[in-house]
Amino acid sequence: xxxxxxxxxxxxxxxxxxxxxxxxxxxxxxxxxxxxxxxxxxxxxxxxxxxxxxxxxxxxxxxxxxxxxxxxxxxxxxxxxxxxxxxxxxxxxxxxxxxxxxxxxxxxxxxxxxxxxxxxxxxxxxxxxxxxxxxxxxxxxxxxxxxxxxxxxxxxxxxxxxxxxxxxxxxxxxxxxxxxxxxxxxxxxxxxxxxxxxxxxxxxxxxxxxxxxxxxxxxxxxxxxxxxxxxxxxxxxxxxxxxxxxxxxxxxxxxxxxxxxxxxxxxxxxxxxxxxxxxxxxxxxxxxxxxxxxxxxxxxxxxxxxxxxxxxxxxxxxxxxxxxxxxxxxxxxxxxxxxxxxxxxxxxxxxxxxxxxxxxxxxxxxxxxxxxxxxxxxxxx
Length: 381
Prior knowledge:
CATH architecture: Alpha-Beta Complex
Mean pLDDT: 80
Structural class: alpha+beta
Number of strands: 17
Strand content: 15-25%
Distance between the termini: 55 Å
CATH topology: phage-related protein like fold
Helix content: 25-40%
Number of helices: 8
CATH class: Alpha Beta
Largest sheet: 5 strands, mixed
Radius of gyration: 27 Å
Low-confidence stretches: 27-31, 268-272
Number of domains: 1
């Protein structure tokens, strides 16, 4: 076994590595990523699962004569959705030079009666390690691996709520993942658009584009789209997700400034044709007065493979309706983890010649959005 794999497999280090993964998963479940409140992470112990969506139509009751039989009626229908979890994996390699660093750290620690990693005693005192920086780096890669796996599920979910479908191609493996959550036979929303029932035409390159401050009317766009959503589902979306830049476009539109002037000065019977600046707080008040869902600002980013820079989870020019309980980020079992659910991360020897260890992680996952009527997004700028 290689130097790094051997060290991490020792009882104390192995326990700490497991804590790293558990703490990372706990953090991922607790941190408020934009989608987690609407598509929360959920573990499954089987690779395939069923979700049932009730398209419920509750009719009014009927008048019944005393002693008469009660009338019967159909109440909704069940749509069975079967999903197959897809597999994800990654490997962080430790080349020969890193193996030498661990060997030298172990020798130094042994000669001085120390451990490689610094130790914190119950009284708070710290015993320095022979190479705590190296130890922290190795444990950091374990936590990073767990995050990388769960971030992929989050990325796929983000694409699903933005476009209603996923056509993700991995740049490392060239494996493609096609998913489609839309209703091909939709007669609701912007009917008869079928799959595009809740994905109306782009406003880009039109006078209504949100970066055309003189002619755009973003508030009217949102009000109209919320009403289409309400007509379909019987209730409003919980929130509207957009980027900071898109909200800035909305604030700068002349129509927004006029709308706020009208509302803020009506009680005082003062006529004001415009205001100079609409702040975020003023916009929130305007949304409340208009009965629109609150805005969630999201500019979250992830790291591209092979040092390719950063990329947004959500396009900065789209607004997206999010609804409580619209789906989940499912994670399933792996054979590598003896059929247990969730990300599995292990550090092991890959080759002896040349010496190479690696921290490797695998997971099975699938964003689940059973009801296509809850999907709604539009490109606005």
